[in-house]
C-alpha cells in the first residue's frame, strides 16, 4: 500500500472513533488484531495493557464510550509509510486535562493488525 492509503485508514479510524461508531471502527481491524494501551493496563491490569481480537477491543472501547461520552481525539500529525502510520493527537474529555497521545497503527492488506498507544 502507499503511504496515502495508510493515512486514509488513519483518518477513517479517527472518524469512526470520534463518532463512536464501534462497528465501523472495528471493521478497520483484522479479526485477530492486537491493541495495546496504557489506559487499558491501568483499568484492566490482568491484560498487561494488551487485548487481542475484535471482540476484546469492542468491550474495551464500548466501556470507554459509555464512561466518557465527551471523549474526542483531535488529530495533530500523521506520518505513514507502506506498513504503518504514526498518529499524534490530543485526547479531550470534558472535566479532564487534555492529554497528548501518540499511536501507531500497523496495516497489512488494508486492515489494521496492531495498534499501540503511547501517552506523553
Note down, in words, how this protein is organized.
With 120 residues, the chain is α+β, with helices and mostly antiparallel strands. It is built from four helices and six strands. Strands 2-1-6-5-4-3 form a six-stranded mixed sheet. β5 and β6 form a beta hairpin.
Structure keywords:
single chain; 120 residues; alpha+beta; 4 helices; 34% helix; globular
What is the succession of H and E elements?
HHEHEHEEEE
The number of strands is: 6
With strands numbered from the N-terminus, the spatial order across the biggest sheet is 2-1-6-5-4-3
Amino-to-carboxy terminus distance: 29 Å
Structural class: alpha+beta
Strand and helix layout:
Elements: H1 3-18, H2 22-26, E1 29-36, H3 38-43, E2 50-52, H4 54-67, E3 72-80, E4 84-92, E5 99-108, E6 111-119
Parallel strand pairs: 1-6
Antiparallel strand pairs: 1-2, 3-4, 4-5, 5-6
Short description:
Helices cover 34% and strands 40% of the residues. By secondary structure, the protein is α+β, with helices and mostly antiparallel strands.
Amino acid at each position: 500500500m502507499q503511504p496515502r492509503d495508510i493515512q486514509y485508514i488513519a483518518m477513517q479510524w479517527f472518524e469512526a472513533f470520534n463518532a463512536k461508531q464501534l462497528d465501523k471502527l472495528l471493521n478497520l481491524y483484522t479479526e485477530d488484531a492486537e491493541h495495546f494501551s496504557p489506559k487499558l493496563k491501568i483499568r484492566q491490569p490482568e491484560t498487561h495493557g494488551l487485548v487481542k481480537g475484535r471482540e476484546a477491543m469492542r468491550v474495551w472501547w464500548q466501556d470507554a464510550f459509555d464512561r466518557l461520552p465527551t471523549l474526542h481525539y483531535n488529530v495533530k500529525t500523521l506520518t505513514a509509510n507502506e506498513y504503518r502510520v504514526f498518529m499524534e493527537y490530543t485526547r479531550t474529555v470534558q472535566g479532564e486535562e487534555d492529554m497528548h497521545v501518540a499511536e501507531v497503527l500497523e496495516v497489512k492488506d488494508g486492515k489494521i493488525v496492531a495498534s499501540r498507544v503511547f501517552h506523553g
